Amino acid sequence: MKLDDVDKKLLNELTKDGRISYVELAKKVGLSRVAVKDRIESLKERGIIEKFTVVINSENAGKQVSAFFEVDVEPMQLIKVAENLAANPNVASIYQMTGPSTLHMHVLVEDFKMLESFINTELYSVEGITRVESSVILRRFKSRSGFKL
Q1: I need a labelling partner for 52 at 20 to 30 A (CA). Which of 11, 104, 132, 148 fits?
Q2: Residue ranges of the HTH asnC-type domain (predicted)?
């Protein structure tokens, strides 16, 4: 799926502001409103744009503690454990990583008491997990909400 320069410009503008109008986008990339709409529809159909969403500042929304976990899992339990953890509302993202059946997980909770509760009741109780390592974020300098093409 090749992207031309106009598609890249459209995507870069949409990552800055997903609510920008077709008219404004058309001005920025030098196309008509109809051409911009058609290109965005094509990008959606091709699976390049998965969805439009809002980025919420977790701290301002009451999730004061952000932590990353490296979770080692028994190989035969990996998918089951990942799906179980992914269903938890405190889990912001979860990825299978290279290494010995490792999951990388980002968790957002209200406070350290909630983090302790999550670890003890939601994480350590999951069958198949063999090791957990955690890191708490002290300060955020940059957060991905898309990437520049």
Answers
A1: 104
A2: 3-64
